[in-house]
Amino acid sequence: MKSKKHWAVYGSGLSMESNFIRNLLKGVGPEPFKELKGKKGVLFSSFTLNQFIKEEAIHDDFSLSKEQHRSIRTFSSGEQKKALLNYLLSKNPDFFVLDNVFDMLDHASQVELVSRLNDLSQGIPMIQIFRVRDQILPFISTVLRLQEDKVWFTGNRNAYELRFPVPHIINDDDSIPPALHEFRKLEDPLIRFKNIYVTYGDRCILNGIDWEINQGDFWQLIGPNGSGKTTLLTMITGDNPKAYGQDLTLFGQKKGSGESIWDIKKKIGYVTPAMTTLFRGRHTVENMVISGLYDSIGLYKQPTFAEKKLANKWIDLIGLQDVKDKFFSKIPEEQRCMVLIARSMIKHPPLLILDEPTHGLGDVHIPVVTNLINKIAEESQTTLIYVSHKKEEGLNPTQTYTLIPGKDGSTGHRKK
């Protein structure tokens, strides 16, 4: 049997809503993909996954998780991608477009996914969008590079050289802007989990978690997919009913003692890749940063002179003055990440949660983001929780909390 042809496309700055991706999925891609003319493709991407998450939240559409009888948002990253892959296969596509297949997956999940994609590649052509060179799938030999949705390089993976643009580097002398108003002083511990257990049906997720977080701490929360990281986060943000009846303290107040979910959320800055699906409107970069002062999805009131001035200080710091009037949804992914961090920090919240913020970024941009996060930790009183399945090179957390899965649920281990 003749083997299928597969391609890898370097996709730094490539939007999943670009003309290139849209045409590709419709079978009208550029010359290198003439074999796919008139055929139907599907997009295996966090972009697609986030669309399902949004539909579930707004329209109670449980297409990805109806057999599990639970929200797709409660799935681990590995479980979410497995559910998405199964759903897309049920559509009998002629080819796959794979975007950032390894992001947010631990090593075991990556190995499992590669094995499955390798099997599928025997019968289905695949186009991989990659941003980290070492992540090109093993069965792909042809590599392409785009410029403004047009292919300008095609060659063998061994002969391919990336020519990166030089990213903006924040100078050590540049300080993060202060807040317009300071939050009331809170008591320690800021967050405390005491002997926390969480189960879904007959499955135990968290087994006796004890974790105390004080003001000014910089934590990295680590654990493989399915270990309960998302469950812990949603208990902090007030989005998980499993938090009720537990010995949980949030911002100095016992959970369930009269606080509202909005009292909790206004004290939290939150950055996660899924947030980009919420900001699909005509929101400029400047307005996006200002909206962090109001915890709103976009800006719907006239900002004051002081608010605009503060937002522009943040935009200066992250080096995006030249795109401040562009729509957030139209700028590259690495720039959107920086904007979301600035938006979350503009009010200097007591707690900043960074959930896999480098998801979708390439080799050259990850150090820029970690540099900004280190700077926030050093120069503010905000408590940071950086969440990932692995240690991030260049990140400088002062403490690590690791979730260790077991047959009776995950236990926690603290390390300074």
Structure description:
This protein has a six-stranded mixed β-sheet, sandwiched between helices. A six-stranded mixed β-sheet has the order 12-13-14-9-15-16, sandwiched between helices. A four-stranded antiparallel β-sheet has the order 8-7-10-11, with no helix packed on it. It has two domains: 7-156, Rossmann fold (3-Layer(aba) Sandwich), CATH 3.40.50; 191-415, P-loop containing nucleotide triphosphate hydrolases (Rossmann fold, 3-Layer(aba) Sandwich). A hairpin with a 2-residue loop joins strand 7 (191-200) and strand 8. It has helices spanning 19-25, 46-59, 77-89, 107-120, 229-237, 261-265, 285-291, 305-317, 333-345, 366-379, and strands at residues 7-10, 41-44, 95-99, 126-130, 142-147, 150-156, 191-200, 203-213, 218-222, 247-250, 253-254, 268-271, 351-355, 383-388, 399-404, 411-415. Helix 7 packs across helix 8 and helix 7 runs parallel beside helix 9 (333-345). The chain is of the alpha/beta class. The radius of gyration is 22 Å and the shape is globular. The mean pLDDT is 87.
